[in-house]
Amino acid sequence: MSEINLQIDGKEVVATEGMTILDAAKSVGISIPTLCHHEKLEPYGGCRICTVEVEVRGWPKLVAGCIYPVEKGLVVRTRTEKVDKIRKVLLEEMLAHAPDSEELKALAQEYGADRDRFEKHPSFCIHCGLCVRYCAEIKKKNAVGFVDRGSNREISFIPEIAAKECWDCKECFPLCPTSALQAAYVLAGALMTPPEEAHSGGCGCSCSCGSAPEKQAG
Amino acid sequence: MDISKIDQIIDKHDGEASSLIQILLDIQSEHNWLPKEALKRVSEKLQVPMSRIQHIATFYKAFSLVPKGRHQVHVCMGTACHVRGAQRVLDTVQEVTGVKSGETDSDLKFSVETVNCLGCCALGPVMEVDGKHHGNIAPSQIASVLNNCE
Prior knowledge:
Chain A is of the alpha+beta class. Chain A has helices at residues 21-27, 81-95, 102-111, 130-138, 159-165, 180-191, 213-217, and strands at 3-8, 11-16, 51-56, 59-64, 75-77, 144-147, 154-157.
């Protein structure tokens, strides 16, 4: 493994090839905030809260620290005015979804983000994809996935798989920075019958008639 | 729904997972929508997780997860058509078909959709029925065009 010398916030850092800026910064104790990053999962670069400024051949540019590979002679700045502002606006946009998320609140305090800047959205999800990727990459169950696109994109459980797999797993729950997952799960839970009732054949809807499936079937 | 038809479509693409979108498009043109049983079959045969199929099927507007009519009616609401009376065209289409934009009638005959531009502004107002453009259409002509559809 070849060694790569770079500079992060004025500190000389020796990294190995294949490391990301985030890894290199971590090795010298410089913290870069992350939301969609998870050590066990493939880098995603979805939330952009890890945005840092790098200087390549004298030209500054903004990149996502969790996916940008280290380069020889790279100059990285993790707390410039520009970077802080980007993180602040990103946080404000996410706070429109999940104003009470502890993780977001802590970051908001650090970057001076105003939780009421943008109009509130009904969904808690900030599209970090942690649950979706954890389920696909680690558990290999694919019980939860994204649906729709753009501003309408949201997470959705596949009821048939979730009914079988999720009751005893729920490992993705603590990963969620905003508890959107729990909300989606409760919603999906209302749509599916628990395993022990699955054979009795409920009507499958969220209303209280699930308690009398025989009547529904008849 | 005929599951062997779905199998035929999958076999035509050699059951390649990379042909997923092509397979979904073929099913869509066969049935005018993507029935759940068909997607399940595709998921099993291609070894592609259902969550991925759902992601793709909801991402592209070419796919529909609800039944669509045999005839697709698109009314252009672009700026050029708008100033030439697209709203009146849409109103008439809705009246003749009995459904609003984005809906399908109960006989699965018509699906009405508004689009933002069909790219032929000189013909405005434009209505497209099953890929055929009807330019400069007057509300009075709409009933006869739609009644020609079986």
